[in-house]
Amino acid sequence: MAEPSWLPAPSNYPGSFYEDLYKSLHANPNLSTQESFAAETVCQHLESLNTRNPGQYAIHSRIGGYGVAAVLRNGPGKTVLLRADMDALPVEETTGLAYASTKREVDLADQLEKPVMHACGHDVHVTCLLAAADALAADTKAWSGTLVLVFQPNEERGKGAQAMVEGGLYDKVPVPDMVLGQHVYPFRSGQVKVRTGPFFSAADSFRITLFGRGAHGSMPSRSIDPVVLAANVVLRLQGIVSRETDPAEFAVLTVGSVQAGQTENIISDKAVLGLDFRTFSTVTRGRILAALHRIVKAECQASGCTREPLIEETRRFPMLVNDGEVTAEVGKSFARDFRGDFDPDWAHVPASEDVSVLAESVGKPCCYWTFGGTEAETWDRAEKEGKIMEDIPVNHSGYFAPVIQPTLKTGTRALYAAALTFLKKE
């Protein structure tokens, strides 16, 4: 595939403008449901494209929160939806970058002020989709059909795609023939990887409140200590995967937060656990869910709790399944464009995504792929020394910092190639 005419040169793809746009997004993150900066940036940029490109995007904002969608109609043909997510995470950035986030924001989920960082690469996703939108609008003679762009809020809580659908997304834009998207991932930059069938895991998250009885720290016999109870629950929960799940089945269970008490000499009256588990099987999911309830209730009973624990679901992601036919066609384009840097049969990804809701809600197929964001020399050195686990920061880490190039080049080119796979002129 020839380089799009809008690119100044392959060496600085997609140009310093998009590198600066990325840095601006990275330095100005917003938590889920509060994505005002990214949404405003998206709308302003799409409006600017309409002033200098032959194509004209019809722009729709505030869909399901801060969601933005845009439509470019360019003659007969298929309708392709490209999606990027916009929200950031409550993580303190420790990258030391000149454009690192120093922002703090009140999380509307619990009304607590927290540091905010684009620790999952959604700033990369937005930048690549805007750059691809630029390329496709500037090159309308090369394709025919309808392009739909979706910039989605609230992916991290697993509710943004559904919110956009319920907010009238498909009343504003045409129903696509397929939904396409991508995620930057901590492997060698320049590479693209995908898998047909189940690709990203299902995820279930819970807030578990354990009710004990408070007392003076010197009088533990007068209490039902929720800290000791929480410790027993955490340890016992680890046995669900290691001792109750078939080793041939994938499962991950993580207790990501434990909160109890305010000071050293007071035994609190409750403890709150934040728990998440991932699966690729509905049967395995059901068994883990049942074991979770059984263990929590049994440990409370063993501790003599007088009040039942409260187990609340906080989010749920569906399993992401890549359609065979669509993924095979996208794979042909990627094999041509990325050659040895494309892997069509990568491993299952234990992370989770809600992009498939945009497809499944209207009965359409989905294809989602990953592209690398780790600087090549850093990756090669870590791989040679056997230190990938230690030296390569992963998504959701305060050290996660995708190298700007060729990451933006790769992500933009992947979206461009995938869209043109189905928007070919007959």
Automatic annotation (TrEMBL):
Q: Which cofactor does it need?
A: Mn(2+)
Q: Which keywords does this chain's UniProt record carry?
A: Hydrolase, Manganese, Metal-binding
Q: Which domain of life is it from?
A: Eukaryota
Whether Cell membrane counts among this entry's keywords is no
Q: Where is the Peptidase M20 dimerisation domain?
A: 205-300
Any idea which positions bind Mn(2+)? C120, H122, E156, H183
Cofactor mode of binding and number, as noted? The Mn(2+) ion enhances activity.
Coiled coil segments of this chain: none
The entry lists its GO molecular-function terms as: hydrolase activity; metal ion binding
Similarity remark: Belongs to the peptidase M20 family. Belongs to the peptidase M20A family.
**Protein name (database record):** Peptidase M20 dimerisation domain-containing protein
